[in-house]
Design a protein that fits this description.
The chain has 192 residues and is of the alpha+beta class. Helices cover 19% and strands 32% of the residues. The protein contains 4 helices and 6 strands. Strands 2-3-4-6-5 form a 5-stranded mixed beta barrel. It starts with a helix and ends with a strand.
Length: 192
Amino acid sequence: MRRFISRILLPAFLLVPAAALLAGCGPEAGATSASAAAAPELKWDELIPKSWDPTKRYRNISLEALRDNDPRAIQMLDEMRAVWDNAPVNVALDGTAVKLSGFVVPLDNTQNGIQEFLLVPYFGACIHTPPPPANQIVHVIATQAFKGLHAMDTVKVSGVLKAARYASADMGVSGYEIKSAAVERFVATQPN
């Protein structure tokens, strides 16, 4: 059961906003459109409706008493995955211009670079751990392929946020998308 907690439940409780992980980093110099520059910077928790609590059902269950192969643990894992894949989005953000910082999970990778990827709030999401809830994954389609971009690189994405489901066979379900996105790479800066 410890693996169940560390692989599934722990990431839900520890959804560390990318902004916290990117503290001390700033966007690389580059041109962005005026509307993208004026867009507000979102925090990952703003993508989650205030009333949604995926862990409520599991608070009174003694998870440490369950073993990984216990049918109840397997059933809870399946139920939680379904809840996360169908996580509600914050509809108030639908159609708004935003900026959002996070980590890249590539969906394509050509010699021209990466143009389509999932943006996730914490390092390792969708790759080393089960995917976060759908309302914590943004499907990004950049205006052009970005050369030199790799899995788990940190970026800032600007564009119009839409509530739209996208299911990747291997990487999870996103609840949002940003098409024609402007993508900027982050580089570490010295703290003041």
